[in-house]
Write a structure and sequence with these properties.
- It is built from 37 helices and 26 strands.
- The protein is α/β, with parallel strands linked by helices.
- The strands form seven sheets. The chain has a six-stranded mixed β-sheet with strand order 7-6-5-8-9-10, sandwiched between helices.
- Helix 26 crosses helix 37.
- The protein is elongated, with a radius of gyration of 36 Å.
- The protein starts with about 40 loop residues before the first helix and ends with a strand.
- GO terms for molecular function: galactoside 2-alpha-L-fucosyltransferase activity.
């Protein structure tokens, strides 16, 4: 063999792996820190500096090493490679076509204008598998066809001559220099691509010229594909003489079957005279068997049709397998494609080059979402009406197929992955030692994407692998012929074709095209005939060729009907399809080497390998053996030391297995922007001692509970233990603000903080215990009945005690502090209480608040000196207290770290956008307008330019700057629209922008465990961003930016459903806003006189988003 030809390619060792397959090295989760150097570091530098020179010196011989490593099953990742079930060749599975072979082994021709069609020469750098090179004969026939097309195309004299004859209706058999095939589009994009490819194969076999009928040329093909042939066009001009091509139907009068049936044309070549041959013939080779021209696949009929100048081909199928049955075509097909399964693979890459607008969508999505992964898996899902099942059933079929074929990563189920989460050196773990897999979902519906993404969000992947799940679009229904829909569909076909492995739906032409372009034998999901999921979920395709789903049963006569010599050949190469037993497809013959072994390829490649010198072999072996241990030994030095105790804010000694986030969070966050004061650290240790001495399970707590239960009062300073019980109230953001500020109040008043577990006992599932050796959770047997129902009118409410009881607590077991955002001025007097009048005589205080109380406490003269010592920087209160108190449980922390490592970690910059709509759950255009206006005003997102006709360029070797946008909100509509904007259009500065949204619950659900877990994870993820845009009035947003130590860009609350102008402003501090702070001066306590309390203290100012709200700032 000549090394070409539909036989498997030799390993492509002419260059390094394409840059598109390289992933960014995993550094620490946040910023790259300084290295600590020693003598070992110098050794490593010497090794790394020596390696390039060795590569240069041993140049060509290095190729032998590549082959040796592949064929022996050795991988640099430290494992043994398994046999490739997906790639057509075991040795080619890891070899991507490099940019030196942009002509795909001679398949393409040079000389096209690169800017007019970027995909033609760039696509080679994205394909992961190129198992077959074109035969020299195929290359010859393609160049011959290109010359014929230039000579006969529209605009040439020969075309004018043929169309004039057609227009005149003149019959005759005189030879025309140019004969034509007019392809008529039909059905969806996958069908059209396969039928056009089949029509082109027929043109190669018969010496005809293919012209594409495009009733809306600009909208159909010019908007999807480039011209495939140099210096000419394949688009049929609109003035073609045959009228109404799009409306000819299934069986017009000029259909071949009708002409023969009505004896207007004989199927016997010997009986055809000159006057019998019509100017054109319509040929139906579509799926509808009633109207198919079966005789089209008979040899004698091909002789007759060969005398017709114009053939109009109407098809929605891949009919190449049926052409193999024609004796006159079989030998030619064998020469063109020695490997029978390479037909669609090679010709799809030859014919179909996405236009610049589509290619821009492809490359932008690839670099934004897929390029960083070490492995890419495509999952294409098509649900047919005749084989429909419930979404959950299809989802289970996908998982069963994946398990059977080892496609999708397995999940840990709380075993090894959870152990890795809880223990060990986090910076190594987060570096993604297990590699990364990007799963691309292509489907009309989002259901499967949501389920698969949630699977890897909720659970760790086995081996610590980072998993990203992506879906470019979900159109909900097929909209064939609509330009935007077809552009998205074509972009997704090509994105699937860049996969390392594929799962496709049986009988789906969309999947057939994707796997053929990819050069992969996919795992094919079997159709659910009878609406029942098949027992065998999928099968591995025996060939990457598409299936002809409804091949015609030709009743050929004479020699055509026997063709004894070809029966064995057909039996070897044409098989029943795996997904449709009545369909047929081309396969390798039994005498040909199976691509899954690659033995012939290995033998041939081995014959060309030059033996290394002993010195070169020894050097490389030494390097391979020495460098990995060095990296392992030095890994501790290369990892930065993180202050996991946050400057003394936290204490050591907690069981990390019980709460991984407490000490691991430091590796994900920026360095502390505010350090805890020594006095705060001291007081925290004192509070911890108080919580241990008086908390649940202790003798003092037991006595205090008995007194509360029995109604005993006047228990001033009994055991030195007083209690503050926080009622869980409202949404998670409100509760987190309340916890932090009520803890501050407990700190100021020397009370033990006990937090209500909430409806559904949600507290333990959300946060770890913050105090060592004790619990802050209010015991389930707390003796105060129905305490969650307390309100302002309760006799025990602070307002009633002050106003109606003149401060007397006689006969009261407890005092209730009602500090809801709408609390009465009398109840807000608690902000001014010095805790000396009567509160100190009450052992139990119960508080309800949905607010951030801290700004109000600063107005109390009794607390001001203490607060100054605790927080010299007044804008650090929530920042420090939240990092001390609020540590997510392992389940939530696993979600946070998995999402961060899978989607956010590798970006140069992370932007958070938190969206809260207070005008119902319906998406609102003016809110989207406001988001875009704010990000444009503050230059947070890059400007986009129209991609229409613009030639997308490959990123530089160094890579473009990347920005990842984390969107949180109840609706996915805002995320989808912004993502679509950056998918359809290029950024003005070349920045790569990707958007992610962890969940979209559609409606807020308080005290729903799963809902609160997702909300908590998203709050923490927001806190890990570099810059953040939040919604006015939103406590969710307040917590997200304050925990992260970020000064947000606050979007003003819209009025009258109109985006405000300006859309947003930069916050003056990172502190949350208090919506219910006191509006009176504490020294006077004139509750009926409202004053501007913001002028009383320089570090308490009116909030940007709520004029009557207050927030802490740092005047310095």
């Amino acid at each position: 063999m000549d090394g070409a030809g539909g036989v498997q390619k030799s390993p492509d060792d002419d260059g390094a792996t394409s840059w598109t397959t390289q992933s960014t090295a995993g550094a620490a989760p946040r910023e790259k820190e300084r290295w600590e150097w020693g003598s070992a570091g110098a050794v490593l530098i010497a090794c790394l500096m020596t390696l390039p020179f060795l590569v240069f010196l041993f140049g060509g011989q290095a190729r032998a090493s590549v082959f040796w490593l592949q064929s022996s099953g050795v991988t640099m990742g430290g494992g043994v490679s398994k046999a490739s079930h997906q790639a057509i060749s075991t040795t080619s599975a890891s070899v991507a076509t490099n940019d030196a072979d942009e002509l795909l082994g001679g398949l393409l021709t040079a000389g096209f204008d690169r800017d007019s069609c970027r995909s033609r020469y760039q696509s080679s750098q994205y394909y992961k598998h190129s198992p077959y090179a074109p035969s020299s004969y195929l290359q010859h026939k393609l160049r011959e066809y290109e010359a014929r097309h230039r000579k006969c195309a529209p605009g040439t004299p020969l075309y004018a001559m043929s169309t004039e004859r057609l227009r005149s209706g003149r019959r005759g058999t005189e030879a025309m220099e140019c004969n034509y095939l007019v392809w008529l589009p039909f059905e969806g994009l996958g069908n059209r691509m396969l039928s056009l490819l089949s029509t082109f194969v027929y043109a190669l076999l018969t010496g005809r010229v293919v012209l594409v009928h495009s009733p809306r040329a600009a909208a159909d093909f010019a908007g999807l594909f480039c011209e495939p042939f140099p210096n000419t066009t394949w688009v049929l001009p609109p003035d073609f003489p045959v009228a109404n091509l799009s409306r000819l139907g299934w069986s017009p009068d000029q259909a071949y079957r009708n002409l023969v049936a009505k004896k207007k044309l004989s199927s016997d070549p010997a009986k055809v005279t000159g006057d019998d041959v019509p100017p054109y013939v319509f040929v139906n080779v579509a799926h509808e068997r009633r109207f198919v021209d079966r005789l089209f696949f008979c040899g004698n009929d091909q002789v007759v049709l060969g005398r017709v100048n114009w053939l109009l081909v109407y098809s929605d199928l891949y009919f190449v397998p049926s052409l193999y049955a024609v004796p006159a075509f079989r030998a030619e097909l064998r020469r063109l494609f020695p490997a029978k399964e390479s037909v669609a693979h090679l010709l799809a890459r030859y014919l179909f080059h996405p236009s610049n607008s589509v290619w821009g969508m492809v490359t932008r999505y690839y670099h934004s979402y897929l390029a960083q992964a070490t492995r890419r898996v495509g999952v294409q899902i098509r649900m047919f009406r005749f084989a429909s099942v419930a979404v959950d059933d299809m989802y289970r079929q996908i998982l069963a197929c994946s398990k059977q074929e080892h496609v999708l990563p397995e999940i840990d189920g709380g075993g090894d992955g959870e152990a890795r989460l809880r223990t060990g050196n986090l910076s190594r773990t987060s570096a993604g030692a297990g590699g990364s897999t990007a799963i691309l979902i292509a489907s009309l519906y989002a259901d499967y994407y949501e389920r698969i993404r949630w699977r890897y969000y909720e659970h760790a992947a086995r081996g610590g692998e980072r998993i990203g799940v992506f879906q470019p679009s979900h159109e909900e229904r097929q909209a064939t012929g609509k330009r935007a829909h077809d552009q998205r569909a074509l972009a997704e076909i090509y994105l699937l074709s860049f996969s390392d492995e594929l799962v496709t739906s049986g009988m789906s032409t969309f999947g057939y095209v994707s796997s053929s372009l990819a050069g992969l034998r996919p795992a094919m999901l079997l159709p659910a005939h009878g609406h029942k999921v098949p027992k065998t979920p999928c099968v591995r395709a025996v060939s990457m060729e598409p299936c002809n789903l409804t091949p015609p049963r030709a009743a050929c006569k004479g020699a055509d009907a026997v063709d004894k010599d070809g029966e064995d050949d057909i039996a070897r190469h044409v098989k029943a399809c795996e997904d449709e037993r009545t369909g047929i497809k081309l396969c390798l013959g039994i005498e040909e080497v199976s691509p899954l072994t690659g033995k012939r390829q290995a033998t041939k490649a081995a014959a060309n390998i030059k033996r290394w010198s002993s010195a070169a072999n020894a050097t490389v072996v030494v390097l391979i053996m020495v460098v990995p241990p060095l990296l392992f030994l030095l890994s501790g030095r290369l990892e930065s030391k993180k202050d996991v105790l946050l400057g003394g804010l936290l204490v050591p000694g907690f069981d990390e297995q019980m709460c991984a986030s407490r000490y691991q969070a430091a590796y994900y966050r920026k360095n502390m922007t505010r350090q805890p004061s020594p006095y705060l650290i001291k007081r925290l240790r004192q509070q911890e001692a108080l919580q241990r001495r008086c908390g649940p399970g202790t003798v003092p707590y037991t006595r205090a509970s008995e007194r509360l239960k029995s109604g005993q009062t006047d228990v001033d300073d009994v055991d030195g233990c007083s209690y503050l019980v926080l009622i869980s109230y409202r949404g998670l953001g409100n509760r987190m603000l309340a916890i932090a500020s009520v803890f501050l109040y407990a700190l100021l008043t020397n009370r033990v903080l006990l937090v209500d577990r909430g409806y559904g006992n949600t507290l333990p599932d959300l946060f770890c215990e913050p105090f060592p050796g004790t619990t802050w959770a209010l015991p389930l047997d707390f003796p105060l009945d129905r305490f969650r129902e307390l309100g302002e009118d309760a006799p025990e409410s602070y307002g009633n005690v002050v106003v109606n009881r003149s401060g007397s607590v006689a006969g009261l077991r407890f005092v209730y502090l009602h500090l809801d955002h709408a609390a009465s001025p009398a109840n807000r007097l608690v902000y001014c209480d010095d805790h000396r009048q009567f509160l100190h005589r009450v052992q139990w205080a119960v508080i309800r608040t949905d607010q951030y109380m801290a700004p109000g406490l600063f107005f109390n003269p009794a607390y001001q000196a203490e607060l100054d010592r605790l927080f010299p920087r007044k804008d650090s209160v929530f920042y420090l207290l939240s990092r001390y108190l609020l540590h997510p449980t392992n389940g939530i922390w696993g979600m946070v770290t998995r999402f961060y490592n899978s989607y956010l970690r590798n970006a140069d910059e992370r932007l958070g956008i938190q969206i809260r709509v207070f005008d119902g759950d319906k998406p609102l255009q003016h809110v989207l307008d406001q988001i875009l206006a704010c990000t444009a005003q503050e230059r947070l997102l890059p400007r986009v330019v129209s991609a229409e006709g613009v030639a997308p360029r490959l990123p530089s070797a160094a890579g473009a700057r990347s920005k990842v946008v984390l969107v949180t909100g109840l609706s996915s509509w805002y995320h989808d629209n912004i993502r679509e904007m950056y998918w359809k259009s290029a950024t003005a500065d070349g920045e790569v922008v990707s958007l992610f949204q962890p969940s979209h619950e559609e409606h807020q659900q308080w005290y729903r465990n799963d809902h609160d877990k997702k909300a908590a994870a998203e709050i923490y993820l927001l806190s890990l961003t570099d810059r953040i845009v939040t919604t006015a009035w939103s406590t969710f947003g307040y917590v997200g930016y304050a925990m992260g130590g970020l000064r947000p860009y606050l979007m003003f609350k819209p009025e009258n459903l109109t985006a405000p102008n300006p859309p947003c402003t930069r916050a003056m501090s990172m502190e949350p806003c208090s919506h219910g702070a006191p509006a009176f001066e504490c020294t006077r306590k004139e509750i009926d006189t409202i004053i501007n309390t913001g002028v009383l203290l320089p570090h308490v100012r009116a909030c940007e988003d709520i004029p009557w709200g207050l927030k802490l700032t740092d005047p310095a």
